[in-house]
Amino acid sequence: MTAPLPVRPPEPPAPRTPPAPPGPGRRAPSGLLAPLRRTGQLFALALAVARAVFRRPFQVREFIEQFWFVASVTILPAALVSIPFGAVIALQVGSLTEQLGAQSFTGGASVLAVIQQASPLIVALLIAGAAGSAICADLGSRTIREELDAMEVMGVSPVQRLVVPRVLATMSVAVLLNGLVSVVGTLGGYFFNVIMQGGTPGAYLASFSALAQLPDLYIGELKALVFGFIAGIVAAYRGLNPRGGPKGVGDAVNQSVVITFMLLFAVNMVLTTIYLQIVPPKGG
Amino acid sequence: MGIEVVVEGLTKSFGKQNIWQDVSLTLPAGEVSVMLGPSGTGKTVFLKSIIGLLKPERGRVLINGVDMVNSPEREIMETRKLFGLMFQDGALFGSMSLFDNIAFPLREHTRKKESEIRRIVMERIDIVGLLGAEEKLPGEISGGMRKRAGLARALVLDPQIILCDEPDSGLDPVRTAYLSQLLIDLNAQIDATMLIVTHNLDIAATVPDNMGMLFCRNLVTFGPREVLLTSDTPVVSQFLAGRREGPIGMSEEKDAATLAAERTTAGGPYAGSGPCTVVPQLEPSPGLPVRQGALRRRERVLAMMGTLPEAARTAILDSYTPTLGGGRP
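^ inputs. structure came back:
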């Protein structure tokens, strides 16, 4: 019974080819370049979205749903935040101008601060915090559950089907919301200046029209548009590329909000600088 | 008629880890093929590469002249409409009901009226046996039902190429048998090219026309089913018998020392493990047309007879001699 000892079948399985040639000339992913690659991917997504906006069919239904969603989570907080914000600026500027003896210009100064700076930033922070995080979590969990793969397999581009309506929704809500916040913030400033600090309504309004000009509103709206775009793109980018598993989605949401905030302030600085350079101040 | 899928020299790595290299094979038009392989050999990666979700570093996947690896995204998207892919866990959209899930491709790609869509979708739901569950959300049904719903969604656009990722996982043996029959029936009805990735031995033995096996970063073989079923290559025979003894280990392949030790203690029991019996292939249910793919395959296989190993040749001849298919199982 012990006779025919090990008869190995002729060949070991698949001839084991030399251990996985790392591919000639294939760059090893370096730790230094990783952030650059991410940035590149972010810009690539922004480009892809910009192109897909004009590609048919446009997802009307998804856009309306997303628009409604983004608006419903941001309107109330935006209004509630903008009243105290306008008030703080009015009080602060009011006390400063009082010391300088230029109290009659409080209106103009606080309004400019609200319309040009505070309003787009409030809008963007709320959109990034409330809507962007929801968008990122939504897309992220769909990605890890392979839903987006499934969509792509069916020949439907997730960028066109999901990302474009969301980005357009954040942009348009940002623009509209910016109008609301400007008005509410200005009214808040007016209220606090006139009622609390004893400013005169006439001086407030007069200085307002003396210093403010239409381009101030334009730049505010333009900023809101750009910030809405950034919030939407960053949320979508982090949502489409979560790092594995439910925790990855949580991290992605976190990062999307942080990245958006940092980008916002950087872009805001650039836009403000350019604006101040090219649009002459009215009062000067 | 289905479309031929030609894979040439495909190599895929994730970072430094090579998944498989230089995989070349042709999925003949309208035939059913099965890709076997132990867990973790990149079978799913292979499927996703065929459909262009993952981009291998080298090689091509040609479908109707479109290279799913390197062609422009636009053409790839177009070509994907020819595919139906059944994901391992269904990959249904969690926020939509089963009906909407299955109707999704129709609503995206066709301009059919809602009544027409309803008719098609209900027909597919009936095929996979989910009537009555169409208003449920994917979270409210069992894994097996999700799988079947995924299959229904893959079928709704009448695909020319159907890819199934482990259709059996999470299904009981009876449902697996039904599913095998369903796949064959589908093939008879729409003559689509099918690739099933699995490690279920019943499916492997009864469903395919062709079989391949991935192991250890390589395509071990790909050819008519009889070639693998009668193969005495250690990997293949170990896998098909579900034995522990052989080159496949728990993690991946075994090292030489373990193999040698195994050889001495076990006395090489698998060296001549007797003639493998080739189970007859499933036939379409009565009343369905003959599978065109099977007819084409017969021509093809008989023509390549000379190049096949002895055992496979006899098995093929056995299966073809009594013209009525060697009796139904």
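Confidence is low (pLDDT under 50) at residues 267-275, 324-329 of chain B. The domain at 5-82+159-229 of chain B is CATH 3.40.50.300 (Rossmann fold).
thumbs up if we can close this ticket
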